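INTERNAL AUDIT FORM
Audit reference: QA-55
Scope: verify that the stored structure record matches its stored sequence.
Auditor: D.O.
Record contents follow.
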Amino acid sequence: MSVLAPLRGGLRLLFILTVMSLLAAVLAVTGLALIAFPASSRRARAALVTASARAVLRPLGVRLHVDGPAPDPPFMLVCNHLGYMDILVLRAATGTEFISKAEIARWPVIGGLARLTGTLFLDRSNKRELMRINTLVADVLARQRGLTVFPEGTSTAGAQVERFHSGLLAYPSVTGFPVHAATLRYTTPPGIDTAHTVCWWGSMTFLDHLYHLLSIPHFDAWLSFDPNPVQAENRKALTARLHERVSAAFEPIHGAPTE
């Protein structure tokens, strides 16, 4: 083993700790500002959230490319899910809030980001929680905020857009509120397996994944917004149409297993 290996490992650990400290600082400032000015204009609030997310993306080497106009709040948006970086990318592009599975609250760093910037956590194993979905969605939209959900229910390697679950789409199917669709993918420099360095899925642990993520010089996030929001007469039809929109713009992630 090279004598330089421990040094490289130590420098990498120091870099990780530095980045995590930066993330914590940005999140704390953003969270305090949102708490101090809860009734600020929707445009000012969205600008604050997007600016803080972009400030985190830069030192991570993320280059964001957006195709199509992002929806204006209040909006409801669905997107395919590739990992924890999705939260930062979508916040940077739209200033959105999220309804996410309860486990995210326990994720290092990302859980802090989610809590400080208004993510609503849902315990999907609790039937009473599921019954609260309509109330949660209505409250966010009534406050003139944007809301994003990941109907796949979990993050994937990006081989395809997995089946959408309809539970989080109950409110718009009942009220007729239009839902926007976005499609997200990542690319890395030649020779780098995007699915195993940027996407977070399966049994990957957060710190191991972050280590590999920080080992690449940069990567690109490509976010595409469908220009036409979707409405449907029932939840099943709405879910199917949104899945079609997201799938139509999707390109498989490099390195994603096909089986």
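Auditor finding: record pair retrieved intact. The mean pLDDT is 84.
Action required: none
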